[in-house]
Amino acid sequence: MTRTARWMQRAFIFLIASGTLWFIVTQIFERIDQRVPVFVALLLTYVIAAYLVLPWIVRASVAVLRRNRIPRVTRAADGLAADPVNVVLIGRQEQLDAAFAAAGWHVADALTFRSAVKMAVSFVLNRSYPTAPFSALYLFGRRQDIGFQEDVGDSPRKRHHIRFWAAHADLEEAGGDPAYWTRRPHIDPARSHVWVGAGTTDTGFGFQSMTWQISHRVDRDADAEREHVVAALRAAGWVADERYIEPGEPVGTRFVTDGRIFHARLLSLGSKRGSRTGADDDGIAT
């Protein structure tokens, strides 16, 4: 990007930010303030701005500033950029489950009213909940198929976690095709041999930087979490043919990352069982 283009981009962002602030103060707060007490007006303004206005503004701005780029991040339900894609594993779902179980990670519960309440209670009381649910993030037009986590301490307040989406094509082969990221294929996770993952570390609860919505606070160093996941799988002895790939272009995101994606094949269940009895351990899932 040239210096002129960079300054034009900054000017555009400044104008959008200024216009958004003006709209929130004059068109939302002042109108509500005329009808209800100040405290209620501030609360309603926050809810409208954080959950309606700002997500729409950010989505529209990203669409303009990052047009024609292949996304390498997942999306939240409101369409905003979320966790970066940083791990791709080749193998069947039973291999994926076995690999993370061997590494000491747990499968996350489905997000239901009951599991959400249990997580809230565990968070407040600092009580262990090793299978605490994840919020939904989206890739290929659908929410994650499975997620794994490892507590940091004995509470869901902090945890290592990674979401996976089943895919048909190897990311290394399809990464240059924008349709690979945007279409919504119908995939049976039980038959998938490719798992596209996005791993980050939860460090507590807080406000999102762009919309000020209340959510888990996430460590911005996504590369550190990627390497933590990789180290756990290596220690468990479940990955082979390791390499880093760099398909596509990055999109706007708050994470600090070199953009590389860890790519490996999961060892077959047969080869793992064979290794325990002294058999050859070079079987690779295809």
Automatic annotation (TrEMBL):
Instruction: Give the highest taxon in the source lineage.
Output: Bacteria
Which organism is the protein's source? Neoaquamicrobium microcysteis
Keyword line? Membrane, Transmembrane, Transmembrane helix
Organism ancestry: Bacteria, Pseudomonadati, Pseudomonadota, Alphaproteobacteria, Hyphomicrobiales
Q: What is this protein called?
A: LssY-like C-terminal domain-containing protein
Q: Which residues form the LssY-like C-terminal domain?
A: 68-260
* Regions that span the bilayer: 12-29, 35-58
